[in-house]
């Protein structure tokens, strides 16, 4: 079992503090959902875990099985077992999806021990079929000209090919129609199990109809303010966030602006 | 402005050279007239690059012999790497000597001519005379075109007759391995009406160089013909290069360029296509890597003369070290070219603080009923792209490598010969390291 521990995490962007002490512990074989209104720091948390260059961790810690994640470069974090499905994946012209994925897989292997092309293609074909992606998408340039839904599917394809210990999914459900949402959920459910932990960030309870979380956390004003089981998500769906605000005495005035 | 022209050859030398090659009288005279003009003509003026101090006129030898070979296994490894033994039609020039020629039987039967320029002017004198510096490039454009005409010392002639479709690409390799060699190379490719041909060439220099490169290539695409032209230049630092590749497209003709311009020395490269015929089109794709202290000037121009003609320009360049380059992209629509379209995209990726790269997009439009557009950018590798790739475990160095290869892919993917494509990828790899 692996464990990702986030302790009292404070994160700023351009000197504005967005996260104000986040505490969270994830184990493999668990699926967590983080919900909350817009602009409460959910995506900032995702970016800080992965090491986005614009976000500065001012205090607190993130450890993966005791190893200091914050000391690692972005690629080291990835190779240590972290994965972030991004809300807005970059487009990279001239690099095919297949070449990119092969580079990502080989980055985890020793030189001279690269994955055989045949094995890679077999695995890629299988996963693409599972995600109902047309074969030609492996030869298209990475995310270039992909629709919103295609990009999200492609993030899940990468997840399934790379098989990280922990995946953070940043609004993987946004902009998806119901069919695409089902496919993306199918991919995540396929990953579910021993050796895989997941942190799903979402505005909507809708995603949780397809992927039942073990734990649900609510973020407001840069902190996790409430945690519970999947029933918490259902109550949020039914009643919104106001009851939590009232319960905790939170006022709306200082909502922060969140960037991608 | 006058540029002092110190020439290494005299009129007598030029005449002797021509006679020694048993050239037809028209060519001897053309050389002589050209040489006279070198002195008085203006120097070429590449926009925004001062070439006053560049040496285009002094060189060690007018002709350096290479070695004719009978088997490809005699070639240096660098050349072997880009020629496939199954290549049907192949011309190899070693220094200034035609070294090897193989033409597919099928092409010979169809009347396709592929032969070195010296042989062509003897065996197909009329045909060469008709097109040699008459339609595309003229002798007296400036000093360097005249110098080229006077001193031309190698090259290739390709003629594809009417209605003939050449299915396999024709490959040419011009390689040098003697530091005294200069290339006054001329390639003349004529695709007659409704012909179709793909031609791919490499200029490779092995070892050091101190000579001149003055290359003129003329691509004539007659009515309804299609030509795909690929080139990879990897000439050594010691060469000062003037490379002029020009196309003429007639009615409904089409010309696609894919140029990998990877010289290490100071270079002026001009790639101009005149869309003469109505409904003709050209697509000029160029990729460049500048490194070291070299200074380069690239002009890609497509000029629309014909109605409903379509010109596309794409230039992607990577600049590193202290290299400097100007990228002139020119779309010109002439009066009367109604419904013409001119599009261009120039992107320069800067990898070093000390490098300079300027994209200089120019649209000149003299007709109302047309469409045109351009995009130009100069910038660094996008940090968010790097972040995205690194977030999948790819190291920073490899992420940059992938992005750069992707950036130069538009030309790589267009090269129809596997060996040449691989070579360009390797050159890119080596140069950006």
TrEMBL record, chain B:
Pfam families: SUFBD_core, SufBD_N
SUPFAM superfamilies linked: Stabilizer of iron transporter SufD
Domain SUF system FeS cluster assembly SufBD N-terminal: 60-171
InterPro entries associated with the record: Fe-S_cluster_assembly_SufBD (IPR055346), SUF_FeS_clus_asmbl_SufBD_core (IPR000825), SUF_FeS_clus_asmbl_SufBD_sf (IPR037284), SUF_FeS_clus_asmbl_SufD (IPR011542), SufBD_N (IPR045595)
Residue ranges annotated for the SUF system FeS cluster assembly SufBD core domain, each copy included: 174-407
Stored NCBIfam families: sufD (TIGR01981)
Protein family (similarity comment): Belongs to the iron-sulfur cluster assembly SufBD family.
Protein name: Fe-S cluster assembly protein SufD
